[in-house]
Amino acid sequence: MKLSEKMKEKQLLSFELFPPKTEKGMANLPGTIEHLMEFKPEYISCTYGAGGGNVGANREVCQMIKKAGSIPVTHFTVIKNTKEGIREQLDQYLEEGVDHMLALRGDFPMGETSTMGDFDYATDLVKFVRDQYGDKFEIAVAGSPEGHISCRSLEADIAVLKQKQDNGADYIMTQLCWDMEQFKYWLDAIRKAGVTMPVDVGVMPILDQAATINMALSRNGCVMDRELSRLISRHWLFPNPFAAKDAEGKPFDLFYDKKIAEFKEEGIEYTIRQIDTYRALGVEGIHLYALNKWKDVSEIINRSGLRTLV
Ligand code: FAD
C-alpha cells in the first residue's frame, strides 16, 4: 500500500536522516537506525545534497534503511541536474529497490540565481517523473506553511502546491513551522484551494541553540514564536551560541554544560507540545528530523505518546 494511502487511514510516524560526512558517522548509522526501528517508522527519508555531491552516501543510507526493514524515501533535487542525469539516477534508485522520493527544487548554489539544470521548479520534476516512470515512484513534495522564502506570496505558493498535486504528487512533507496560528491558517487555506494530499509534518527537535537558529534563519526565514525565543534567550550561551563548542562538539566553558542540558530538556518539552498541537489538528503524519540521533528522538517519542502510533 502507498504511504499516502496509509496516511489517510492513520497518522504515520517517520524519520529523516542525512548522509554522514565521515566514515565514522557512516559506520555508526546502522546502529542508530536499529534503535529508531524500535518505533516501527512507516518510512525513513534521507536528504540529498543539492547538486548531487553526496549521492553515493545517500544511496548507501537508503540501503541501510532498507536492510533495517523500513521504506527508504530519498530526497531528490533538480539543482545542476539534466534530464538525462535525472533519468540515470532514478533508474539506479529503482534498480536498488528505492521507489519513494521527495521531489524538490533544492536551494540555488551559493551566488547563483538559477538551478543550473534542465528544470526550474519541483513542479517540473514531478511532471517529468510521472511522464517517464508512471506510477513506479511514490512522490512526496515540499510544502511551506509560512510560504517558501522566495515565493511571491503565500497564495502563489499554495497555487504551486496545487500544481504539484495536479502534476501527480502523492503527499506533502512540510518545512518546519513553529508558528502554530500560521500553520492552522495554511492547513485551512490549502484545503480550500483543493489540495487534498495528506500532510506529513516535519518536526525538528529543539535540542541545540545554534542549530535551531541556523535552521530557522540561514535559509528558511521561519518565525520563532515567543515561547521558543524566550527559551533561547533564557539559556543563551554568552557571548555567542555559534562559538560555544570546539570542533569536536565539546563546550568551551564548563558553565555551558548545565545551560546546554537545561536548554535541551526544555527544548524537548517544547517539541512535545508542538507535536501535541499538530496531532490535535489531525495532520496525517509526524515526520521527525532525527538528526542522526536516536537517544533524544527516543525520549521525545516515549514522552510524547507517539508510541501509540506504532
Ligand atoms: P519549489 O516548490 O520549486 O518552489 C521554489 C520557489 O519557486 C517557491 O518560492 C515557489 O513558490 C516558486 N515556484 C514553484 N513552482 C513555480 C512555478 N511553476 N512558477 C513560478 N514559481 C514557482 N534541500 C536539499 O538540497 N536537499 C534536501 O534533502 C532537502 N530536503 C528538504 C526536505 C523538506 C521536508 C523540505 C521542506 C525542504 C527540503 N530541502 C532540501 C530544501 C528545499 O530544496 C528548498 O526549500 C528549496 O529552496 C525549494 O524547494 P521546493 O521543492 O519547495 O521548490
TrEMBL record:
SUPFAM superfamilies noted in UniProt: FAD-linked oxidoreductase (SSF51730)
Reaction catalysis annotation: (6S)-5-methyl-5,6,7,8-tetrahydrofolate + NAD(+) = (6R)-5,10-methylene-5,6,7,8-tetrahydrofolate + NADH + H(+)
One Pfam family per UniProt: MTHFR
Pathway: One-carbon metabolism; tetrahydrofolate interconversion
Domain of life: Bacteria
Cofactor: FAD
Record key words, sorted: FAD, Flavoprotein, Oxidoreductase
InterPro entries cross-referenced by the UniProt entry: FAD-linked_oxidoreductase-like, Mehydrof_redctse-like
GO molecular function, one term: methylenetetrahydrofolate reductase [NAD(P)H] activity
PANTHER family with a match to the protein in the record: METHYLENETETRAHYDROFOLATE REDUCTASE, METHYLENETETRAHYDROFOLATE REDUCTASE (NADPH)
Protein name, per record: Methylenetetrahydrofolate reductase
Species this protein is from: Hominisplanchenecus faecis
